[in-house]
Structure formats: structure tokens, C-alpha cells
Amino acid sequence: xxxxxxxxxxxxxxxxxxxxxxxxxxSEAGGPSGKVHAKAKALTTRHDLAVGISGAVDAVLQxxxxxxAAIKLVSMSTTLxxxxxxxxxxxxxxxxxxxxxxxxxxRDGLKTALGTDPxxxxxxxxxxxxxxxxxxxxxxxxxxxxxxxxxxxxxVCAYFATRNPAHELSARNLxxxxxxxxxxxxxxxxxxxGGPRRALTTLLxxxxxxxxxxxxxxxxxxxxxxxxxxxxxxxRGDGALVSAAFARQRPIETILSGPAxxxxxxxxxxxxxxxxxxxxxxxxxxxxxxxGGRPRxxxxxxxxxxxxxxxxxxxMRTFGLGGDSEVTLEDGALNPRILLGPxxxxxxxxxxxxxGEAVTVxxxxxxxxxxxxxxxxxxxVRTGVxxxxxxxxxxxxxxxYELIGATPLAVDRLLTSNAQNATLNRLVSRGLVHxxxxxxxxxxxxxxxxxxxxxxxxxxxxxxxxxxRDGRGQAIAASPEAIxxxxxxxLTRLSAEVVLETAFAEDGLDGAATVAHALVQRAVDxxxxxxxxxxxxxxxxxxxxxxxxxxxxGLPPLVGHDCVVPEDTDVANALGAVVGxxxxxxxxxxxxxxxxxxRVASGESVRDFNDEAAAIAAAETDVRAIAxxxxxxxGTDSAEIEIASEFRVSTVxxxxxxxxxxxxxxxxxxxxxxx
Length: 675
Fold this sequence. Notes:
Layout: E1 10-16, E2 20-27, E3 35-43, H1 49-64, E4 71-78, H2 80-86, E5 93-98, H3 110-114, E6 119-122, H4 138-148, E7 153-158, H5 166-179, E8 183-185, H6 195-225, E9 232-235, E10 241-243, H7 244-249, H8 257-270, E11 275-280, E12 285-291, E13 294-295, E14 303-304, E15 307-308, E16 317-319, E17 325-329, E18 338-344, E19 346-347, H9 348-355, H10 357-368, E20 379-382, H11 395-403, E21 409-410, H12 411-414, H13 419-429, E22 433-437, H14 440-446, H15 455-466, H16 480-506, H17 511-516, H18 518-524, E23 541-544, H19 548-551, H20 556-559, E24 563-564, H21 572-578, E25 582-594, E26 597-602, E27 605-609, H22 612-634, E28 640-652, E29 655-669
């Protein structure tokens, strides 16, 4: 069956990762797992995402000889949101807290996440039954003209907004009327209680809006230019598909999108029902567990970049460990260890390929110096994002940002004091500047195990790193090849540790502490001794990612089980993006603020009933309608809806007393395709 067979629609999967953008053309023809007609990769171009997308998709179309008009569905996964949270990036936003006190910022990591972004406190909010306190938005209104000129969006969280969103809606409308900027209200993202964590989730969502909006706009523009008139879907963090418009409003739900798609792809490619899936990319390694053919979901909400959100997603643990991880040296040790991550650098081999002599001349200059410097092998370059995203820089940040251009500049020429290093790091965290430096990808180029970028530049970086001194003042390695071997060995070893950490955590232990225990370290190392120790998984590892065949070749003896690397592992995310389903939910709560009065809070409405049965029936009707509408918005016309109710009751003197009911509707179906 060929790619042009009318009876088998063609689906285009795209994955926009931190380093590469992947594309795959797939159809349901060719057996239970369908058929991959073509696949391709292109560098992710953060300054203009359409460039990387077009490079990958055009290559797929050319390889397959497919008429673009024959594509009936486009689905995309992305690690951009995940990477942004891991690396502390995102737009500057203002947080509006209604009914909260300043002390609430100290809960659930909210103050840490907020950083230097502005926050406005307003009187108001509701109680647990949805009864309102007095709302006063005058302080917010006075601050909006100045805030509107210095932030990219707003996050609004009101006390008990999940029981009554009226005050969030008032603030949202005021902000939109005065500033015209995007506003995220907390009740739109979660129906769970816990104001500070809901505020944290809303804050992160607001930060990601501009990034995901640029991604969707770039993809839509490219598809239109190529004559691909197919619906565009995006993978959520739980592996479900939603429409691009849906994802634009709720980008926080795309955190762990790429890893979730990889789990769907891993199951699809291997047929394994029980496995540990480890997906290594340029920036992160994402590890999760397959049980009975389905990924485990995190009931408490996804944790990314150290922040526990309220986003339902796969129980994925994301580690700042990848092919492009920053390579550093342990401070103060006689025999310092190699450290990797969590920050991503632009590999020197990639920088050399893109910028040529601008990079190599500086590295050669540093090699000629008599003594090594802490800043050797580091260059700074602008990311090329729109200038409006540089709003709100301090004087020191703006001055340094002006010195950095589109051509890499050696950091030892750029910085004149240690204090400026922190300033540079802030520009990196804002997504305005990239730092290029030595990475495992460079080490692989030095050893001839990777050849897609400039190996000569990578070798210069390895030579500079090998000159670094240990605690005795000696060079840490004898040659570029020697240090490169150490880096790759370290990456494989750390990969084993994150797989075992995930396994221990899924077993209810403190994963990080257990892996760090001396006995586990001896077992992983197969350390000889009178007491022989071993550690082993009860299921195989599925290794995903383009570099998995390289970095996971030595994994089996470290984890005590096989490691399966599928044939199409390099495009697992893109493949997983096109074989999933739309799945959305809606929730309602029924409470009893006073005896005989039953209050239904669903969506953006609050209604009272005098009868419990009538209130429950109304809640079920509401969530069914809301779920059906969200399913249509999310991209399916054939949703099946299931409703489940959970009651909290007590018995007093033999009489049943109603406390609360939680009603959930889940709608799922295959995405609509072009006719």
C-alpha cells in the first residue's frame, strides 16, 4: 500500500524539542502498528520555530513523494514548555492574588517561582461554599498602565475560585480591557483546592503563553504555506491530544507533552506492556513507567523544574541530563568528578557549524594562553526572540544584553567581573541569550560517535576542558579523547541512576536518597567485596531519543535488565503524537452551605437547589455539556462521555448527612481529520 492510497489517510507527526525538530509521516496501513512512510530531523530554531519545522517536514515530504494535500491530520508534541520550566525560562508576568495575604507566597514554592516578577494583592475572594467577600480592584486598576508596559501577560488567582470564579472573571476582564494582554485565571486550569499551588500553576501557564503561541503560529503558518489544510493537534502532558487553539490558551498542559508522546510511541513501537521508558534528548532525560500498556499518571500533579503543579500528566520524572547538558567540574576535590546539567548549552560543535571562525578563533586564542581560565570554552549569543520579550530588564541586564549580538562572543571578553556572570545567567533564564560550551554531544563528536556537526570545534572545546586543574593542580585529562570518554561514561552512569531513582520512587521510596546510598552505589558499580550486592529492575528499559543507541549501550549491566532501543526511537515523540486520542474532562462540586440548601459549582456558574437529587442531576447535566463542548474545542466530533460521582457523607444518629459530591465527566475520541 503506497503513501497515496486514498483508503489510508496520511498523518503528519511533529515534535519540537530543545535541539531537534522531528517529523514523521504515518498511516494506519501495514499492520497493527501502521506504517512509517518517512522520517526526518532538523535543528530547532528558537528564534523562528517555523525554520526548524519546515526543514523537518519538507524533508519528510520529499522522501515520501507525498502530495501535501493528502495529509489529513497534523499532530505535534513539544518539550519547549518542559525545558523552559527546567531551565527557569519564560516571559515576565504579573501575578494578581485576590483574597490572599503576602505570607501565602511562601507556600508550595510560589515565591521561588515568582522570582522578581511583580505581584498585586487585592481584597476579595470567596469561602468554601462560594460566598463572596468584598472585592476591591482599585489597586490593580491603578497599577495596570505601568504593568502593561513591562510584562507579557497576567496570572489571576482568587481565594476559593474553584467554588466561585466571579472575582477572577472581574479581574480578568479589567486587565484585558486596559492592557489587551493575555490573562490566565486559575479556575480555567484546575478545579482542585489549594490556592498557592493553583496560583503557581497559573503563573507558569502565563509565562509559557508567548512561547507556545509562537510555536503554534509558526506551525500553522508553515502548513498553510505548504497547502496542508489539515487540523492541527497538540499532545498534552497526559498523552491525550487537543486542538492547537486549546493548547494556546492552556500551554501549561503541554508540559511533559514530548515525554507523554514518547510513552505512547514507545508502547506503539515495542508492544511492551510493562517497561521503564527513558527518553534522552538534548536538554532533559524523561523517565516514566508503563504498567499494563498504559503510562502511570501522577495523581498529585506534574512536577517539573522543582515545581509541583496541578497539571494532570504522566508520572514522569524529568532530569536536567541530556546530550547538550553543561559539562562542569566538581569544585574543591582532589579528584574532581565530572558534573552534567541541569542547564543546556549550545554544543560547541553546533556553534562551530553555524558560526565558523567566529567560534574557532576564540577557542584557539584560549588554548594559546599559558594557563586555563574558568571562562574558557564559553561563548554568548542572542537567541533572536522578539525584542518585546526583553521588556523589564534591569540597567545591568540591559547593558550586558546590548553587548551580545547574533555572532557568538567569548565570555572572557564579555564579562569584566564575577557579578556580571549572575547577570548573564539571568539573561539566559529569560530566554534572551544562549551560552555555547562543551557538552556530551561535543564529546561524541571528538570520539567519532556523532558526526552531524563540526567535530574540529568540538575537539577544541574538549582540549580546553581537559586543561582544567584538579585539587593537586594537575590537568584533569591527558587528551581531548580521554576527557570525552569520561564525559560519555558519566552520562551513561547518570542515566542508570535516574532510571533507578524513578523505579525506587514508584516503589514508594525516596528515589534520590536511595540511589545515593552507598550500598546502592556499590551494587550499580558491581564493586568487588566479601558481601556482593546487586540491584535490578523487574522490567526492561525502553531507550528513546536519537542518542539512545550511543548512551544506553552500556545501560543493561547497571540496571540489571535489558534495554530495548526501537528502530524508530529517534522519532518516538513525533510518532506518538499521531496515534493518540483526544481526552478532556469537566468537574462540578455540590456542597451544602446550610441544611437543605445544595450549591452546584460547575464551570463558571454557581446555582442553588433545595433537593440533593436535583442538584446532583444538574451537576451531571452541566459536566456532560461542558465536557462535550471542551471535546469539540479540543478537536473531536465523536467523543464518548463517561460520568463518575464521588460522595462524602456522614451518619449522625442513624441519619445520612450529605457533605459534598464531586462529579467528573471524561470525554474521549479520535481527532477529527480533514475530509
